[in-house]
Amino acid sequence: xxTLERIISEHPFFADLDRAFTALMVGCASNVRFKKGDYIxxxxxxxxxxxxxREGQVSVEVxxxxxxxxxxxxxxxxxxxxxxxxxxxYQWKHQARARDNVRAIALDxxxxxxxxxxxxxxxxxxxxxxxxIIEQRLESTRLQLIDVYAxx
Length: 152
Hints:
The chain is of the alpha+beta class. 37% of the residues lie in helices and 26% in strands. The chain has a single domain, classed as Jelly Rolls.
């Protein structure tokens, strides 16, 4: 039987995380589903959750006035969606939409921030892992910009 604790502990993002930390996080977790085309969150909305994608693809998009949204990343199984819950003012800077049916584990950001405030070792582990994700996404964006502007 799949439990939230097992799913979280086996997710690549949380590989090698102390079991005690995983147990703390389970209290902030829930299963969620999104249908193809559903917005998971929108730019400007309160950022209070992040997601462990278990199945399906998600487009991370930037709103572009008078244009279709610009897709800056496509995330899939095994990846993390969202880090705006981690940094004040806790507001989404982009939007995310299900490209097909998506299953994920949602982690309540406020709940997790409180647990990190109470246990700084947990907070440090979470921050280190998100710093890697942020660095990877920034590098990906840099490469996209080079590709776009090199073609001119």
